[in-house]
Amino acid sequence: MIITDFAEIVEIKRNREGKTLKYLADLIGGKSIVYTKQVIAGIQNGENARKYRQIIAEDLGISLAELEEMKNSNGEGK
User: Fold this and answer.
1) Residue-range definition of the domain harbouring residue 53
2) Which DSSP letter does residue 43 get?
3) Residues 6+ apart with CB under 8 A from 20
4) Is residue 75 part of a domain?
5) Distance (Å, whole) CA 29 – CA 37
6) CB 3.0 to 4.6 Å from 44: which of 19, 23, 49, 78, for a disulfide?
7) Do the Cβ atoms of 2 and 74 come closer than 8 Å?
8) CB 53 within 8 A of CB 6
9) How far apart are CA 36 and CA 43, in angstroms?
């Protein structure tokens, strides 16, 4: 089974590394936990939200480029 949903991958990696939503919120500039959840879930999708997703991905060791490639190869990105 391949997980291609960013929010699921973040949840798994976050739990494995013992990082809290508060930690991720502080990582992206002290934003609120609610906003951070929305960024991760893709509800917030502006330019800043995309930058914040990249910061979160880098911190958790997630490659967004590989994730997009997997989605496209599975036909999910179309």
Assistant:
1) 6-67
2) S
3) 14
4) no
5) 14
6) 49
7) yes
8) yes
9) 10
pLDDT, one tens digit per residue, over 3-42 is 678 999 999 999 999 999 999 999 999 999 999 999 999 9
Contact 38, 53 (CB under 8 A): no
Q: What does the pLDDT look like over 47-77, one tens digit per residue?
A: 999 999 999 999 999 987 766 776 677 665 5
Instruction: Tell me if 38 is assigned to some domain.
Output: yes
| The overall pTM is greater than 0.85 | no
Outline where the chain has alpha helix (H).
6-17, 21-27, 33-41, 47-60, 64-73
pLDDT of amino acid 78: 43
Instruction: Tell me, yes or no, whether 76 lies in a domain.
Output: no
